[in-house]
């Protein structure tokens, strides 16, 4: 037995007390380091909520209540300074009508991002230059770079990329869930159409290079990613992807291709989308219930706040009757640590897919982001490594993209 503050305690109790004190001290240290850095995520799908009636990003929300994962109070709690806010358009028919509809959707998403910034000038600032990030964070504001997930809305008129560039676009991914006019998706159920980039896709790469826009290979087929690495004059990003070495899913990248990405100067940002992290059990009843709910939805942007609330209540009911089985934080970190081992901290970052399906147990919204910093410090990574991971790496890519575009002038 030992004595602590005049009281007798067992060796086991003393060991647990000391371990707890050490853990708390390490957690405080990690929190201080996390708060001292510019912390960015490269894939925030939150603009989809900005057009949703009743959603106010300035107010605190709860993922259990309304399924949202990003708002200003939680950004503050999680030390998230901002990142790349996504113009996302679902893949539709590759037709003139489809292009027009998608173009209108994309413009409305871009306008929603601008309205968020303009309505809250003391909180958000639009960023277009790599130097903007630190200046904005130092001014205690949130960083708003703009990216486009799925270039489908551009149709076959690449001059539209100029339009979106003028609206602040600084990252673009050619494809999403299915093949389109620019090339092959990693997940099209019908397989490949072009064997990588289409001829128009090759022109998209050239156009993005000329403007100084980062090219994003997430969702792209491996062959398309290889084409972009080969053709792009500046390094390519995977804004939200995982590793096949941990879980062999088409959305993830194998080590051989990851090494090619790194050798070209590219960066991979780690996704927290559960079904891309590990094999999750299928629940046919849950799938059926959600399918029926989605059929009833229509255009959520045209609903009243009361209708949106009723829809979310139905979703909560489905989750209660058929609970989701989620990937864990350890599943996420297994991808992260393997990628760091292969790519190194100068080619790795965070792109968790918030408000786009991302989230794992213990890390279901941006308030939990310090867990990543804490774990990486425990694994032996330094503050300098973390500064690269949380922001410097993607800013380097943006710098290289802009310097190349400037060199053409």
UniProtKB/TrEMBL annotation:
Q: What GO annotations for molecular function exist for this entry?
A: metallodipeptidase activity
**Signal found in the keyword field:** yes
The secretion signal range is 1-25
Q: Which of UniProt's keywords are assigned here?
A: Signal
Record keyword Signal present: yes
Stored Pfam families = Peptidase_M19
Q: Which InterPro entries match?
A: Metal_Hydrolase (IPR032466), Pept_M19 (IPR008257)
For this entry, list what GO says about its biological process.
proteolysis
Which CDD domains does this one have?
Answer: rDP_like
Protein name per the record: Peptidase M19
């Amino acid at each position: 037995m030992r004595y602590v503050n005049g009281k007798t305690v067992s060796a086991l109790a003393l060991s647990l007390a000391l371990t707890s004190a050490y853990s708390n001290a390490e957690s405080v240290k990690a929190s201080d380091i996390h708060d001292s850095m510019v912390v960015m995520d490269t894939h925030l799908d939150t603009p989809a909520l900005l057009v949703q009636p009743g959603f106010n990003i300035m107010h605190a929300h709860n993922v259990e209540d309304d399924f949202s994962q990003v708002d200003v109070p939680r950004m503050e709690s999680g030390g998230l300074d901002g990142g790349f806010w996504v113009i996302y358009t679902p893949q539709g028919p590759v037709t003139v009508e489809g292009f027009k509809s998608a173009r209108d959707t994309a413009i409305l998403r871009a306008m929603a991002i601008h309205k968020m910034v303009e309505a809250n000038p003391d909180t958000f600032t639009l960023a277009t230059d790599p130097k903007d990030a630190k200046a904005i964070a130092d001014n205690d504001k949130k960083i708003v770079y703009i990216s486009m997930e799925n270039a489908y809305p551009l149709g076959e008129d690449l001059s539209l990329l100029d339009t979106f560039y003028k609206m602040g676009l600084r990252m673009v991914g050619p494809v999403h869930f299915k093949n389109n006019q620019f090339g092959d998706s990693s997940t099209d159920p019908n397989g490949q159409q072009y064997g990588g980039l289409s001829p128009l896709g090759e022109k998209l790469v050239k156009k993005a290079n000329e403007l100084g826009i980062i090219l994003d290979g997430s969702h792209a087929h491996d062959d398309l990613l290889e084409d972009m690495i080969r053709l792009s004059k500046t390094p390519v990003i995977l804004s939200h992807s995982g590793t096949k070495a941990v879980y062999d899913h088409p959305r993830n990248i194998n080590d051989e291709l990851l090494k090619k990405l790194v050798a070209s100067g590219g960066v991979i940002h780690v996704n927290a989308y559960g079904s891309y992290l590990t094999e999750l059990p299928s629940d046919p009843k849950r799938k059926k219930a959600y399918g029926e709910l989605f059929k009833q939805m229509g255009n959520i942007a045209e609903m009243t706040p009361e209708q949106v609330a009723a829809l979310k209540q139905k979703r909560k009911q489905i989750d209660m009757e058929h609970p989701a089985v989620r990937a864990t934080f350890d599943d996420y970190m297994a991808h992260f640590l393997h990628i760091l081992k292969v790519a190194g901290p100068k080619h790795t970052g965070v792109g968790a897919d918030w408000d786009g399906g991302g989230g794992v147990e213990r890390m279901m919204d941006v308030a939990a982001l310090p867990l990543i910093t804490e774990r990486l410090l425990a694994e032996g990574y330094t503050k300098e490594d973390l500064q690269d991971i949380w922001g410097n790496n993607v800013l380097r890519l943006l710098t290289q993209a802009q310097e190349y575009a400037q060199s053409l002038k």
